[in-house]
Every structure is written in structure tokens, then in C-alpha cells.
Amino acid sequence: MEEARQRIETMMKRPPIATWSSPMSAITMILVCGAQDMHDIGKRLLIAMKARGIPKQYLLADLISVDQSAVTRWISGKSMSISHAIAICNQLNLSMDWLILGIGEMYRENLNSAEDKVHSVEALSEEAKYIIIKTIDYMTSIEGARSNIAFSAI
């Protein structure tokens, strides 16, 4: 956490190189990075593309609805809007912290993982847990019965 705080404080002293404006509001966000950071973002973008099996820039461009030239610019270290960074992170399931700042894990946490579901169930009332367990038991018995019927038919 301390490392992230120091990195952000350092970045705040640099000139802004990327901005994002919403046409629906007067809110403008400014991403403050240095030129070296943008070059690093380009490197991380290439790493993410390779990890996700996207071998060509035009394929990423198609995924996020931009021209291939935009992807080429980002990879070469030119500025990227926040909205494009968000689109990239959403399409590739990347952590924004990793893409922009180089901190943390490359991928976002999968909020739908089985482990997350277990933690969600653990937080429920005993009655809700009972209902879920009985539902699972019922569904398992149905699947078991189907398997037995299919096996008997062979």
C-alpha cells in the first residue's frame, strides 16, 4: 500500500498526458503520468494482448472500437484516454492499477469465481444457507437420476 501511495504522489508531480471527458457531463478526469509511464503502459498492453491471445493490434482495435492506429500509438508510448483504458481493461479483464500504474496483479479479481460464491453463502442467514443446500441436494439428485436413466438405456 505504501508503494502505491508513493507512486501516486510521484505521478501527481508530473505533467498530465491523458484526459477523459464524458460528453454527458462536465466532469473531466485527468490521468497524471510521465512519458516513461506511458511507454510502460504500452509494454503492459503488449503483454496483456499476448496473454489474452490477441496477436495483432487490429484485433484489439476491433474489440474496443478504435482505429488500429490508436493501438499503435498507445503501444509506442503515446497518451491514452481514460475511456479507452477502461474499455481495454473491460475487454481483457485487466486490472486498471496494473495497466496504468504497473501495480498489483494483471487480471481483475473474478467476482463470479466459486470461492467468491462460497464466501457470499457464508455471509447468509442459516435459513438461507439451508435453502441453498437443499436446492443443491435436489439438483444433484435430479442429475444423478438422469445419469442412471441414461446408463440403464445403454
CATH fold description of the largest domain: 434 Repressor (Amino-terminal Domain)
Strand order of the largest sheet: 1-2
**What is the element string, with H for helices and E for strands?**
HEEHHHHHHH
Distance between the termini: 60 Å
Q: What would you call the structural class?
A: mainly alpha
Summarize the structure.
By secondary structure, the chain is mainly alpha-helical. The protein is built from eight helices and two strands.
Q: Mind explaining what this structure looks like?
A:
Helices cover 64% and strands 5% of the residues. By secondary structure, the protein is mainly α. A hairpin with a 6-residue loop joins strand 1 and strand 2. Helix 3 packs across helix 4. About 14% of the residues have low confidence.
Topology of helices and strands:
Blueprint: H1 2-12, E1 18-21, E2 28-31, H2 35-51, H3 57-64, H4 68-75, H5 82-92, H6 96-101, H7 114-122, H8 126-153
Antiparallel strand pairs: 1-2
Note the main attributes of this structure.
elongated; 154 residues; mainly alpha; two-stranded antiparallel sheet; 434 Repressor (Amino-terminal Domain)
